[in-house]
Design goal:
The structure holds 2 protein chains of 2 kinds. By secondary structure, chain A is of the alpha/beta class. Chain A is built from 12 helices and 13 strands. Helices cover 43% and strands 19% of the residues of chain B. Chain B has 3 helices and 6 strands. Classes of the chains: A alpha/beta, B alpha/beta. Chain A binds chain B through residues 128-130, 132-133, 136-137, 151-152, 154-156, 158-159, 162-163, 166, 170, 230, 236-239, 241-242, 245, 297-299, 302-303, 307-310, 312-316, and chain B through 27-35, 53, 59-64, 67, 70-71, 74, 81-106, 108-109.
Chain lengths: 316, 110
């Protein structure tokens, strides 16, 4: 990205949002953000140009919001930032409904009344487990496509959100806490969940435990390790269930889960898993797309492996 | 000796004299280790030989809470007998997994 008009007198960075700022466009969004996120010697101003956006979703909007929050907090933008809203009115309305501008403390002129769009839940910052549980319940009750799901699939979705959020609270030390958004499309029958933080990343968290230090030479290795059951930085080998469970649920559902942490990434698509290189996210980003026509069942995950059972309790 | 904070909790003693803890009082979605600690303390602090965990109205149970509340409960010394009722199959599976996983970790580190 080049410095654009009017930036000559101070160091500014211009970021152009991609045409498709949605789940499928995550990698393009990250590429556009990379110069700003990586810039050495703090830029004084950042311009986020959203005019090219033709399609977007909860995932893309959350990434952009988290990136802008991160830049403000970490780069100390002495000349502030500028957001050029999308050209297409319906995209602008969608982004307003997602409370993107609210999340950044920005007021738009001539914005008009914002209405809650059915099927989406706005970008929300959560900073503890209670807030996460409250948000999860609200999302499940207000997004119609989630409401229609089988009870246990809804329960599994709730666990996904809460477990990912708890990872942020326990491990990330994120200055923006966790940004979460959700969306469900009646047209595609897909649901999206995204959780972004700008904390230390999985590798640094795991490397704090001497038992894992040598096992995480890079960010990809750290993510790969963290996806295993009972891997946790907290030296308690019965912990470390959440990320593993969420990834198993995505696989079982035939959905997709993208995890990015600093320089590393893994993309899980159904039963396939692919290493993702060449992208950068300052912290950890988990984006999941579920097939809402298929079940999401934690029982099936637990039944699918040879896990220790225990008859300590009675069950009716 | 472990001490537990005084807290309000919803419980009943039914006609059979059993002590029942209504977990939905904590919400439809049970998640987070802090809440897990609270639930475990409620069970251990009840001072009963047997406790029923009633999941009626609970829609989801996160594995972290299940480990903190029930996995560690299963290992606690002098704990009451526990019976789980009105839980969905997914919730039963999550409790069973948490208990088995915690017990196995304890056994391997012993």
């Amino acid at each position: 990205m080049t410095e654009e008009n009017g930036f000559a007198e101070f160091k500014g960075i211009y970021v152009s949002a991609p045409k498709y700022a949605d789940f499928k466009g995550i990698r393009k969004t990250l590429k556009e953000l990379e110069p700003a996120l990586r810039s050495n010697g703090a830029p004084q101003r950042v311009v986020l140009d959203m005019t090219p956006i033709q399609r977007c979703s909860a995932t893309g909007i959350t990434i952009l919001a988290a990136a802008m929050q991160h830049l403000h907090r970490s780069k100390r933008l002495s000349k502030g930032s500028e957001i050029r809203p999308p050209d297409k009115l319906w995209i602008r309305r969608y982004i307003e409904d997602m409370e993107f501008f609210d999340a950044l403390g920005v007021r738009l002129d001539q914005g008009g009344p914002a209405q809650r769009r059915s099927g989406t839940w706005p970008v929300t910052r959560v900073s503890n487990e209670k807030e996460s549980a409250r948000l999860t319940r609200t999302v499940l009750e207000h997004v119609p496509q989630f409401q229609k799901m089988h009870l246990e699939s809804r329960g599994a979705l709730a666990s996904c959100v809460n477990e990912m959020a708890e990872n942020v609270f326990n491990h990330a030390t994120s200055p923006i806490d966790a940004l979460i958004a959700a969306q469900a499309s009646p047209r595609t029958k897909k649901g999206e969940l995204v959780i972004a933080d700008t904390g230390r990343g999985i590798r640094e968290a795991l490397a704090a435990d001497p038992a894992y230090r040598d096992a995480v030479p890079d960010d990809y290795a750290a993510i790969k390790l963290a996806l295993n059951l009972n891997v946790s930085r907290l030296e308690d080998r019965a912990r470390g269930i959440g990320l593993w469970l969420v990834s198993q649920l995505a696989r079982q559902n035939g959905g997709q889960m993208l995890i990015l942490s600093n320089e590393g990434g893994i993309d899980i698509v159904g039963t396939q898993e692919e290493r993702v290189d060449g992208y950068f996210w300052p912290g950890t980003l988990v984006a999941i797309e579920f097939d809402l026509t298929r079940p999401i069942r934690t029982k099936e995950v637990y039944d699918s492996g040879d896990f220790p059972d225990d008859d300590a309790f009675e069950y009716d | 000796m472990a001490t537990f904070p005084t807290m309000m909790h919803s419980s009943t003693t039914d006609s059979a004299g059993e002590y029942r803890l209504a977990l939905a009082e904590h919400g439809q979605d049970l998640s987070g280790r802090p809440l897990g600690k609270v639930i475990r303390a409620e069970v251990l602090g009840a001072g009963r030989d047997a406790v029923i965990l009633d999941f009626d109205g609970v829609e989801s149970l996160s594995p972290s809470l299940a480990d903190e509340a029930f996995g560690l409960l299963a290992l606690a010394k002098d704990r009451p007998r526990i019976r789980v009722i009105n839980a969905t199959p997914d919730i039963v599976a999550t409790v069973r997994f948490a208990v088995g996983n915690r017990s196995a970790a304890a056994a391997s580190s012993a």
